[in-house]
């Protein structure tokens, strides 16, 4: 997989070192996380709070392992994510931003949590993410939140249609977010089947599951 990512980066004229590959371990046991760690993987992702929390606990002895939360958050549970996640890729509404905006009283010294705004690039409002027209307003809200650091934007390509066109749209949104804060320059995009398109459109954080872990479902 590393070779495929490296060659997609070279094809796009990009330095592979700019890319962070997050291995998505959902549906797989904590033992798989140990195996990946032994192979050198340090960034892992989960999309459900309970599963993420349990696996992070089971693997807490693995030094330098970084958990990324990539799934939908409930405002009520959002604060708990801070206890195990290095970053959150799925801020998708004001209530979730507000839930994470202030430091957790139980972790007063924790640094601000790096976070991406998830954008819905489909026609279906029920899919995760904010509408493109609402990205800037949410970005301003994140920038005003003392306990969050805006990293950039995140999206999942629509099931139908061209992934490349969707990622091109995401790149445009990234450009406008960067006018608010040049540091918010990261783009979390690209999964097992569309990572090359995402890399071609500037993705910096790939979220790869089945191509690395195999299918469990
Ligand atoms: C599962 C998941 C991935 C990984 O998907 P694959 O197709 O298995 O690579 C990436 N992002 C999110 C948000 C996911 O839920």
Largest sheet: 8 strands, parallel
* Strand line-up in the sheet with most strands: 7-6-5-4-3-2-1-8
Coarse structural class: alpha/beta
What ligand species are in this complex?
pyridoxal-5'-phosphate
Order of helices and strands: HEHEHEHEHEHEHEHEH
Name the helicity range. 25-40%
CATH architectural type: Alpha-Beta Barrel
Query: Counting H and I runs of at least 4 residues, what is the number of helices?
Result: 9
N→C terminal distance: 20 Å
Number of strands: 8
CATH topology descriptor: TIM Barrel
Tally of structural domains: 1
Question: Could you state the CATH homologous superfamily?
Answer: Alanine racemase
CATH class division: Alpha Beta
Classify the beta-strand content into a percent band.
15-25%
Task: Describe, in plain words, how this protein is organized in 3D.
- The chain is of the alpha/beta class and about 220 residues long.
- It has a single domain, classed as TIM Barrel.
- The protein contains 9 helices and 8 strands.
- The protein has helices spanning about 1-10, 30-40, 50-60, 75-80, 95-100, 135-145, 165-180, 195-200, 210-215; strands spanning about 20-25, 45, 65-70, 85-90, 115-120, 150-155, 185-190, 205-210.
- Strands 7-6-5-4-3-2-1-8 form an 8-stranded parallel beta sheet.
- Helix 4 (about 75-80) crosses helix 5 (about 95-100) and helix 6 (about 135-145) packs across helix 7 (about 165-180).
- It is globular, with a radius of gyration of 16 Å.
- The model has no long low-confidence stretch (mean pLDDT about 95).
- The structure holds pyridoxal-5'-phosphate (PLP).
- Pyridoxal-5'-phosphate binds near residues 207, 208 and 210.
- Pyridoxal-5'-phosphate binds near residues 47 and 71.
- It holds the Pfam family Ala_racemase_N.
């Amino acid at each position: 997989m590393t070779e495929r990512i490296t060659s997609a980066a070279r094809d796009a004229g990009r330095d592979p070192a700019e890319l962070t590959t997050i291995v998505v371990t959902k549906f797989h046991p904590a033992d798989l996380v140990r195996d990946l760690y032994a192979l050198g993987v340090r960034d892992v992702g989960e999309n459900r709070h309970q599963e993420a929390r349990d696996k992070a606990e089971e693997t807490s002895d693995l030094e330098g392992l970084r958990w990324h939360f990539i799934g939908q958050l409930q405002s009520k549970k959002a604060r708990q994510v801070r206890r195990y996640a290095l970053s959150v890729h799925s801020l998708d509404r004001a209530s979730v931003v507000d839930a994470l905006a202030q430091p957790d009283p139980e972790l007063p010294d924790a640094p601000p949590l790096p976070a991406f705004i998830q954008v819905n690039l489909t026609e279906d409002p029920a899919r995760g993410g904010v509408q493109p027209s609402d990205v800037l307003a949410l970005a301003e809200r994140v920038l005003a939140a003392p306990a969050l650091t805006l990293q950039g934007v995140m999206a999942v390509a629509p099931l139908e249609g061209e992934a490349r066109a969707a990622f091109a749209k995401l790149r445009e949104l990234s450009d406008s977010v960067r006018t608010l804060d040049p540091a918010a320059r990261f783009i979390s995009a690209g999964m097992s089947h569309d990572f090359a398109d995402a890399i071609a459109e500037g993705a910096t954080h790939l979220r790869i599951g089945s191509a690395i872990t195999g299918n469990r479902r």
